[in-house]
Design brief:
Elements lengths: L2 H18 L7 E5 L2 H9 L3 E7 L4 H14 L8 E6 L4 H7 L6 E6 L2 E7 L4 H12 L1
Parallel strand pairs: 1-3, 2-3
Antiparallel strand pairs: 2-4, 4-5
Length: about 130
């Protein structure tokens, strides 16, 4: 079989794997971000990650596979994840004190345990997530 016959299939398979990776999270997707949803989850005392992202952000693109891998770990199975779209949810950004995309904020219940902006080091992101579950 010639390469030009199988190359489209290989590219398609690779594209599907990359497209599926950001959604391969074991943690709970909290659904669309709203202050009401966040407050309800906080009142339940759950660990929470709020991430502010933009589709055009290169740092967010670097964070995405790191978060996907970390969130698949058993220690983060109860973590509820909310995403704030940096381009369209300006009120939520203001209310959360977020000035830049690629911001990660962790809570344990109603208590903010930490935040970072622009961090792409897997160990640092893991350390931040751990603050929400301890």
């Amino acid at each position: 079989m010639r390469l030009h016959h199988i190359l489209p299939a290989i590219l398609l398979a690779a594209g599907l794997a990359v497209a599926a990776a950001p959604n391969a999270r074991a943690a709970t997707d909290g659904g669309p971000f709203s202050q009401q949803a966040l407050t309800a989850t906080q009142k339940q005392g759950k660990p929470i990650l709020v991430e502010a992202t933009a589709p055009w952000c290169p740092i967010c693109a670097k964070q995405r596979p790191i978060l996907s891998q970390l969130l698949a770990a058993p220690e983060f199975k109860d973590l509820v994840v909310y995403n704030i779209d940096f381009d369209s949810q300006k009120v939520a950004l203001r209310d959360m004190g977020i000035a830049m995309q690629s911001t990660l904020i962790v809570f344990n219940g109603t208590t903010e345990k930490g935040r970072s902006t622009g961090v792409t080091d897997p160990a640092a992101i893991k350390a931040l997530l751990e603050k929400s579950v301890h």
